[in-house]
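Example 195, ligand heme C.
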Amino acid sequence: MAQKYDDKLLDHDADGIQEFDNNLPRWWLYGFYFTIAFAVVYMILYHITGTSPLSKQEYDEEMKLAAASAKNKPTKTVAVAPLNDAASLAAGKTIFDGNNNLCYTCHRNDGGGLVGPNLTDDFWIHGCDLKSIMINISTGFPDKGMLAYGSGAKLSDEQLLQVASYVISLHDTHPPDPKAIDPEREVKCEDHQEH
Ligand code: HEC
């Protein structure tokens, strides 16, 4: 080991740093040869024969696949009509009145409205059809204080449908002392059963 290098000093000096004229260490040389071989193989595969795809081609390929699968995917239909059987409406009421999603704290147990608008009348800001209601519950209106699913606690698709159906079932129940209509934003909407 000790005799491997003869440690002959070269006669130059950069700010006190001097240099031996030794052979390059073997591990370094092999690493260097490897990078040369790698570059050759890489160039052949990617640029000459085109056997392997460049990033741009990979990207285009993936975008094509995504576009094709988006086209073929059936649009997800959770349900087309509000549920109206007693068990589903009871499940919806449990969600509405429960502390997991907190709907009642802002809309009142009877839906008459408090912080949030009255959900029992014909006047709606964001649409009164089932689909709009489900979307609105799932996204919430965070800038107005309503988090996704009311409190941020996720509901399953089925629970979402149950609570939206329950909201629709409150229509025309005329709770006492409802929150006033906001004529600036709420518009008459009668199509409750539409989807
Ligand atoms: C922290 C208060 C709060 C909670 C909790 C809350 N909401 Fe709301 N909600 C609001 C407010 C405020 C709005 C009105 C948003 C706006 O002004 O655009 C609203 C709007 C809505 C709307 C749309 C009304 C319209 O006129 O278009 C629906 C439907 C609704 N909430 C249902 C629910 C349900 C169901 C829950 C429980 C899962 C819930 N909200 C929980 C405050 C709340």
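Summary: The pocket of heme C is lined by residues 96, 101-103, 105-107, 115-117, 119, 124-126, 133, 136-137, 141, 144-146, 149-151, 163, 167 (CB under 6 Å).
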